[in-house]
Amino acid sequence: MQQRRNSDTERILHSLDGMERASAPSHLFHKIEQRLHTIIEKGRTVPLRTVSLAAASLLLLAAINILMISHSHKAKQPKGDAMQQLVNYYGLNEDAGL
Amino acid sequence: MQAEALILLIANGDENAFRQLYELFKDKVYNTCLSYLQNKEEAEEAAQDVFVEVFHSAHKFKQRSSVSTWVYRITVNKCLDRLRYRSRQKRFAFISSLFNKTTGELQHDAPAFEHPGILLEQKEHAAKLFAAIARLVEQQQTAFILRQVEGLSQKEISQIMDLSEKAVESLIQRAKANLRKILSE
């Protein structure tokens, strides 16, 4: 019984002997060409979503830059006023009569 | 024209060279995909993946190996990717797809695979063998398919799998031992 089982197993194990290679279907190359052309077309056109994201990013960057410049400009002015106040308080003007 | 020369032309976008290379390798690629995936439609899809990859990666081919080794390597990788994806799908869907929604019956596995190149008198045995091959671990499956189905030498298989010839021999022996175990269950 065991011997018969073993010989069945061996027969199955050798069932690929003499097999022929399967042939690729005739339409396969056409499908490959279609895929390649689809990939090339997708590469040429930029999706609207990408363009919108890029535009939004640029606007945000510009807005941040404008805010930063405006903030830095305002920050300088109070410093200038404070300095002038100190100068006036201690009478440190050039023509203070020294 | 030799495959190496064709690859150089394909790297420059030569579509005629690509067609010639396709003709050289189409059956090898398709047959390998069929043996892994055991489904004609999936094998066609995988074969397309392979040749698209060949076209796009031709400029990266450094001639450190033969073109045949390179193409087989891409084929093996694409097939294993598809098998892993199939495994993941099965894992996530096993609860919901376990029962047929209308009859409540258990769904059965896919029917036995019949390779078109098998001799008529061997078809039944070959179907059992392919079912057993599908249960091998990846490396054993690859070594066995490349040896028994594609008829490649151990040297060629070692170059494709980037292993020593001894390691390939060991893999094939272990694959056969495991197949015997599975077949006698």
What does this structure look like?
The complex is a heterodimer of chains A (98) and B (185). With 98 residues, chain A is mainly α. Chain A has helices at 2-13, 28-44, 48-89. Chain A contains 3 helices and no strands. Chain A is elongated, with a radius of gyration of 41 Å. Chain B has helices at 3-11, 15-37, 40-57, 67-93, 123-133, 138-149, 154-161, 165-183. Chain B folds into 2 domains: 1-101, Orthogonal Bundle (Rna Polymerase Sigma Factor, Chain: A), CATH 1.10.1740; 113-185, Arc Repressor Mutant, subunit A, CATH 1.10.10. The chains are: A mainly alpha (98), B mainly alpha (185). Chain A binds chain B through residues 5-6, 9, 11-13, 15-25, 28-29, 31-32, 35-36, 39, and chain B through 19, 22, 26-31, 34, 40, 44, 47-48, 51-52, 55, 115-119, 122, 125-126, 128-129, 132, 148-150, 176, 179-180, 183-184.
Low-confidence stretches of chain B: none
Envelope shape of chain B: globular
Structural class of chain A: mainly alpha
CATH architecture label name of the largest domain in chain B: Orthogonal Bundle
* Tally of DSSP β-strands of chain A: 0
- Distance N to C terminus of chain B: 50 Å
The most extensive interface, with participating residues per chain, is: A-B, 24 and 35 residues
Structural class of chain B: mainly alpha
> Ranges of chain A with pLDDT <50 over ≥5 residues?
none
**Averaged pLDDT of chain A, please?**
83
Q: How helix-rich are the residues of chain B, as a percent range?
A: 55-70%
Termini separation of chain A (Å)? 127 Å
Total helices of chain A: the number is: 3
Which percent range describes the beta-strand content of chain B?
under 5%
Report the strand count of chain B.
0
Mean pLDDT of chain B: 91
CATH topology of the largest domain in chain B: Rna Polymerase Sigma Factor, Chain: A
**CATH-wise, what's the superfamily of the largest domain in chain B?**
RNA polymerase sigma factor, region 2, helix turn helix motif
The total domain count of chain B is 2
So what's the overall shape of chain A?
elongated
